[in-house]
Write a structure and sequence with these properties.
mainly alpha; 8 helices; Interferon-rel_develop_reg_N; 0% strand; single chain
Length: 177
């Protein structure tokens, strides 16, 4: 705040201070906006992710929604049951890229693969706010199949899966799985 009032011949306007103030205000208002409309935003985003019966949501919108929902849930959700519900929504997407029972890797188009990748990344982001026991339960379910994503045709999925696996293997909760 003091820099916004400062007059100097070297700096014609206190743009740095104003930019900082603008950023701080935007972050605070965004958090309040998300917090006050949490359920409405979550429901709308989940409907878009699931694509609905009319198929109106295009794949690029669904990709962006997967990322947005993960971030919004991380920032504004305080009920772990709602976090798990959101994680299950992501699981319903990225698990479609898991190897089939016979070991074959599903073939999906690049746009769908990017949606699955975004869902995997958002799911993993939400794992970071789970307790150790919750994390262990979720990973016990997914660790046997996650390495199969390293065989994906999509390089972005392979990179995302590899990074997530590396993170998971470094968490003490996974050492006893």
């Amino acid at each position: 705040m003091p820099r916004t009032k400062k007059k100097s011949s070297k700096v014609p306007r206190p743009t740095g201070a104003l930019d900082g103030l603008k950023t701080a205000m935007a972050n605070r208002i965004l958090y309040e906006f998300i917090s006050e409309r949490r359920m409405t935003i979550t429901d709308s985003i989940e409907r878009c992710l699931k694509k609905g019966k009319d198929g109106s949501a295009n794949i690029q919108a669904r990709q962006a929604v997967a990322t947005s929902l993960g971030l919004c849930t991380l920032v504004a959700e305080d009920d772990i049951l709602d976090v798990f519900s959101t994680m299950e929504c992501f699981e319903s997407l990225f698990t479609r890229s898991y190897a089939k029972g016979d070991g074959t890797v599903p073939s999906v188009n690049p746009q769908t693969s990017q949606l699955h990748t975004n869902a995997l990344l958002s799911w993993a982001l939400l794992l970071t706010i789970c307790s150790g026991s919750q994390l262990k339960e979720v990973l016990r379910k997914h660790m046997p199949k996650l390495p199969g994503l390293l065989e994906s045709e999509d390089v972005n999925m392979r990179i995302a899966a590899g990074r997530r696996l590396l993170c998971f293997l470094n968490w003490p909760e996974t050492w006893t799985l």
